[in-house]
C-alpha cells in the first residue's frame, strides 16, 4: 500500500467504476478500478475532471496499471460535491 498522494482526476468515473487520475508531481497516470468500500467509490464518483484528490492506492490484482483506492480525501474540486 502506498502513502496518500495527490492526484488530479483526468477522466471521470465511467460505467465500469474506472476513474483515471494523474499523480503529482510525477505525471504518471493510474486507472482506479476498485475501491475499499462503497463510500470510497461514491467519493470518487462525485469528482469532476480537474479535481485534486488525496488517495492511498494499492495494486488491484495482477493486471498492469489498475489500482484500488484504499482511502479517498478530496483536496480541491472544480465543481461536484466535496468529499471530506
What topology emerges from the helices and strands here?
Blueprint: E1 5-11, E2 19-23, E3 29-35, H1 38-45, E4 52-59, E5 66-76
Parallel strand pairs: 3-5
Antiparallel strand pairs: 1-2, 1-4, 2-3, 4-5
Domain DUF7999: 2-77
Protein name: DUF7999 domain-containing protein
Named at the architecture level, the CATH assignment is Beta Barrel
- Unreliable segments (pLDDT under 50, ≥5 consecutive)? 80-84
Largest sheet: 5 strands, mixed, barrel
What is the global morphology? Answer: globular
Task: Give the total of domains.
Answer: 1
Question: What is the alpha-carbon Rg in Å?
Answer: 11 Å
- Classified by CATH, the class is Mainly Beta
User: Helix amount, in percent?
Assistant: under 10%
User: Strand order within the widest sheet?
Assistant: 1-2-3-5-4
Distance between the termini: 21 Å
Could you name the CATH topology? OB fold (Dihydrolipoamide Acetyltransferase, E2P)
The total count of helices amounts to 1
- Run of helices and strands: EEEHEE
CATH level 4 superfamily: Nucleic acid-binding proteins
* Structural class based on helices, strands and sheet pairing: mainly beta
Mean pLDDT: 86
| Beta strands, count | 5
Query: What share of the residues does DSSP label as strand, in percent?
Result: over 45%
Organism: Halorubrum kocurii JCM 14978
Protein name: DUF7999 domain-containing protein
InterPro entries: DUF7999
Domain DUF7999: 2-77
